[in-house]
Amino acid sequence: MKVTGADASFEIVWEKSGIPHVYATTIADAYRGMGYAAGRERLWQIHQSTAYANCEAAALLGERFVAQDAIQRACNVAGRQTGLPDSEGDWIVDAYLQGLNTVVDELDEIPPEFAHAGSTPRRFTRADVAARYRFTSWFQHKTWTEKMALGRLMATHGIEYFRNHTLHFTADDEALIHELSTPLKQLSTTPYALAYPDASEAVLSGSNNWAVTGARSISGKPILATDPHQPHTIPHTFFCIHLHAPGWDVFGAAFPGVPYFMMGVTGDVAWGLTTGFVDCYDLYLERLNEDGEYLSDETWQPITDQKETIQIKGGQTRDINIRRTHHGPLLEDLCRELGLAADSAPGFGTSLYWSLTDVPTSAGALARLPLAKTAEEFGDLLFEDNICPLVNNIICVDKDNGLRRFIATTIQARVGTSGSVPLPGWQPQYEFPLATATDLTVQIDPEDGFALTANNDTMGETGAFYIHNFPANSARADRIREHLTQQEQFDTTDFKRMQLDLTDLRAKNLLPDLLEVLSSSKDPKVEQAHDILAEWDVIADKDAAAPCLLYPFLDRLWARQFMRRVLNDPILKAIPIATPGLSRFDIGHFLTKDSPWQAHREVLRATICETMASVVEQLEATLGSDASKWKWGDLHQIHFTHRLSKHPPWAGMSAGPDPIGGSPTTLGMAMHMGPGPGRAKQGEIPCRVYHGPAFRLIFDLADPEHVEFVMAGGNGGGAGSEFASNQYPTWLNGEYLTISFRRDELDEHTIWQLEP
Question: Which of 172, 651, 700, 744 has its CA 20 to 30 A from that of 675?
Answer without folding.
Answer: 651
